[in-house]
Structure formats: structure tokens, C-alpha cells
Amino acid sequence: MSSESGYGQVVVVMKIYPKGVEVDLKDIVNEFKERINPEKYKVLKWEEEYIAFGYKALRLYILAPEELEGGTEELEDIAKSIETVDNVDIEMVSRVMF
């Protein structure tokens, strides 16, 4: 993954809410990875977050170029396009230094 000239990278922390408790969060992760452009984005890690009554949300940590046209909108649209996803929130965007 290459960053655009002169710019760094950011970690985008995205919380994805599935449509129900029966949704396998691993399937959402795999489908998200298949839909993103590997030249721009990389899923660093993911974790489940217990909400209530067996319902869990998915938290994705995504490495992205710092200067993205439209900010995180493309990532949000990709996640929302997955059939089993109900809603998406961006929790944090933080610049990373290597």
C-alpha cells in the first residue's frame, strides 16, 4: 500500500452495526475486505463489541491515505452497501507515524 506523495496515513476506526444478532460479523469483515481497494485501504484488525441482549457491533481499524477525497465517505458507503449491515459510525480518525 502506498501513500500519496507528501501525505501520511490515518487509522479510521469504524463501528458497523449488523441488521440482527444472527449476522456473522466475520462475514461482514470478509465482504468488506473484498470490496475495498487494496491500493488505498488495509484492514489492520477487527473486534466485536457487545451491545446488549446478544447483539454485537463490529469495530474495524482501517489504514487509509491521509488525504482522501471525500474523507471517510467511501469507506462508509462500502460498509453500508453490505446487505447485512444496518448502520455505520466513524468513531475516530487518527494520523499514524511510522
> Strand-and-helix sequence, N→C?
EHEEHE
Oligomer: single chain
Helix content: 10-25%
Percent of residues in beta strands?
A: 35-45%
Radius of gyration: 14 Å
Shape: globular
Q: Spans of 5+ residues with little confidence (pLDDT < 50)?
A: none
Mean pLDDT: 91
Q: Major beta sheet, specifics? A: 4 strands, antiparallel
Distance between the termini: 14 Å
Structure write-up:
- The radius of gyration is 14 Å and the shape is globular.
- It has two helices and four strands.
- The chain has helices at residues 25-35, 73-80; strands spanning 9-18, 42-52, 55-65, 85-96.
- It has a four-stranded antiparallel beta sheet, covered by helices on one side.
- With 98 residues, the chain is α+β, with helices and mostly antiparallel strands.
Question: What is the secondary structure topology, with strand pairs?
Answer:
Layout: E1 9-18, H1 25-35, E2 42-52, E3 55-65, H2 73-80, E4 85-96
Antiparallel strand pairs: 1-3, 1-4, 2-3
Features:
98 residues, alpha+beta, 2 helices, 4 strands, globular
Short synopsis of the structure:
With 98 residues, the chain is α+β, with helices and mostly antiparallel strands. 19% of the residues lie in helices and 45% in strands. The chain has a 4-stranded antiparallel beta sheet with strand order 2-3-1-4, covered by helices on one side.
